[in-house]
Amino acid sequence: MFFAEVIVRKSAIASLVYFLAMVLPERKSDPPGVYEKPFKEMYDYIVVGAGSAGSVVATRLSEDYDTSVLLLEAGMSDLEPDDVTQIPSLWGSLIGSEKDWGYHSVQQKYSHFAYENERAYIAQGKVLGGSSSINAQNIVRGSRNNYDQWEHEGAVSWGYDDVLPFFRKLENATDTSYGDSILRGLHGPINIKETTGSILQSFHQTAAKEIGFSTVDCNSDDPIGFCKNQMNVKDGKRCSTSTCYIRPALERHNLQVSLRSRVTKVLIRSNKAVGVEFIKDGKRRRIFAKHEVILSAGFISSAQILMLSGIGPRKHLQQMKIPLKVDLPVGQNLYDHLLFAVQYNITAPLNINNKKASEPDRILEYIFNREGKNEVEGIILQNVNPLYTRGPQIELQITNKAYEEGLVLDPYLAFKKEIVKEHLKRVDQNSFIVKMFLLQPRSKGHLRLSSKSPFSSPFIDPRYLSHPEDIEDFVRGIRLMRSLEQTKAWKSIGATLVRQDVPGHCSEKKFDSDNYWRCIGRHFLTTATHFIGTCRMGSVNDPSVVVDSRLRVIGIKNLRVADASVMRYIPSCHTNAPVMMIGEKAAHMIRLDRTHRYNI
Ligand SMILES: Cc1cc2nc3c(=O)[nH]c(=O)nc-3n(C[C@H](O)[C@H](O)[C@H](O)COP(=O)(O)OP(=O)(O)OC[C@H]3O[C@@H](n4cnc5c(N)ncnc54)[C@H](O)[C@@H]3O)c2cc1C
Question: Which Gene3D superfamilies match (predicted)?
Answer without folding.
Answer: FAD/NAD(P)-binding domain, Glucose Oxidase, domain 3
